[in-house]
Amino acid sequence: MRCDRCTDHPCSTGNPCVPSDPEKAYLDREERRILQAAGEVESRFYGDLCRFDEVVEFARVLGVHHLGIAFCVGLFQEAVWAAEILEKEFRLTTVCCKTGGLLKEDLEVPSSQKVGAVSCNPVEQARILEEAGTELNLMMGLCVGHDALFLRHSKAWTVPLVVKDRRLGHNPVAALTCPYIRRKLGREESRP
C-alpha cells in the first residue's frame, strides 16, 4: 500500500480503497472513547487552536484529571511553562528524561562531549508516571528512539506535545515544507 502516491483520496469522501467493517471497527470501548474525544475536539476547534490548546481540550473531553509530562531536560523551561498552565486545571506528575539515568558506559551506549555520559531513561519515565496513576501522558521533546521506548512502556494514553528537532527549533515539518532544507534531506552524510 502506498497512500502517498494516491491523488484522488477517495477514503476522505467515504469510498476507501480498503473498506473496513463499521461493526468491527473500534470495538474496544477505550479506543472508541479516544476516537470520539479526538473527533469532538477536531470538529469543534479545527484550525482555531494551537496543539497545546487542542491537548487541553482533548483532556477535558476525556474527563482526565491527572496528566503526566515526560520531558527532555533540554526542554526544561518549556516543561515549566506547560506545567504552570496545566496545573491550574489538572493534577500533574512530571518526570525528566534523566530521572533514574544510567551511565551510557554501563549500557554500551555511545557517548560524546556533545551529549554526556548519562543516558536518558524513558522506560523509567513511563514507570514513574504509571506508578503515579496518570490518565493521559504528554511527551515533550524526548529524543528519537527514546520516544519509541516511552510509547511502548507507557500504560496511559500518550500524546506528543513537542517533538524534538534541535536543528529546526522543534518544528520537524519545516524540513519538508522548506524547499531549501528538503533538497538536502537524505543527502547529508552521518558524522562520526
UniProtKB/TrEMBL annotation:
InterPro entries in the cross-refs: DUF1847
Origin: domain of life: Bacteria
Pfam families given in the database record: DUF1847
Identification of the protein by name: Metal-binding protein
